[in-house]
């Protein structure tokens, strides 16, 4: 790095430990002492990022939901949410059994693939009943 750019490389570890001069050495025991703290920080940051996309909607048996479409010939042109499904059974903490309103077919899906049906779908159900 020095021969290519004419200066020494600035490492992230050097910045965290406050090393200003490259000739100054970093004590390995200091690095070992910080490992548990750094692991904890990394774990918390990972959890924070992962929890940004968590679907925390609570469903109950009998609720009407839409299913996220994940396939098709032209996925950009297809609607993102399809059908009108009713929740019929809970399979563990994150999986739900649903039944298609139109065809009567059932399937088991992960809760991240479900979205509560809005008022438009509720009106459709009452109109068809």
Protein topology:
Elements: H1 2-5, H2 12-17, H3 28-50, E1 64-68, E2 81-91, E3 95-100, E4 106-110, E5 114-116, H4 119-128
Antiparallel strand pairs: 1-2, 1-5, 2-3, 3-4
Would you mind describing this structure in some detail?
With 129 residues, the chain is α+β, with helices and mostly antiparallel strands. Helices cover 33% and strands 23% of the residues. It contains four helices and five strands. It has helices spanning 2-5, 12-17, 28-50, 119-128, and strands spanning 64-68, 81-91, 95-100, 106-110, 114-116. A five-stranded antiparallel beta sheet has the order 4-3-2-1-5, with no helix packed on it. The longest helix is centred in the N-terminal third of the chain and has 23 residues, at 28-50. The protein is elongated and about 75 Å long. The model has no long low-confidence stretch (mean pLDDT 80).
